[in-house]
Amino acid sequence: MVKKLLTFFFGICLMAGAATAQTESSIDADSIVYWIGEGEDQAILVVDFGTTALAWGYRFDESDGLTVDDMIGDILEADPRFYDGYDENYDDAYIFIQRPQYQLSCAYAAFKIGETIYDLDDYDFDEVDLADGMLVKVSSETSGVWSTPIVAISIKEVPVDATIDAADVTYWVGEGANSAVIAVDWSNPGVAMAWGIHYDGTLDVEDALNYLASNDSRVTVESNSINFDEGSLHFAFQDVDGNYLQFVLDGNGYAGWSDEISNGSFLKVGESLFAEGVDSVYWDGYGWFPTYVVWPTEILPVFEPLPTPLPTDATISADAITYWVGEGNNKMIFVVNWPDTALAWGYKFATETVSMTTVMDAIKAADSRFDYVVGQYGLENITFTDGNVNLTGAQYSYWEQHKNGLGGYAAFGMGDSFQNGDINLWADAAAGEVADRGFYAGYGFYDINAYPMTIHPVSAPADPQPQGIDEVAGINVKVYPNPASSVLNVMCGSMEGDAVIYDMTGRKVYSQAINGESMTINTSVLANGVYMLHIGNTTTKVVVRH
Question: Would you call 368 helix, strand, or coil by DSSP?
Answer without folding.
Answer: coil
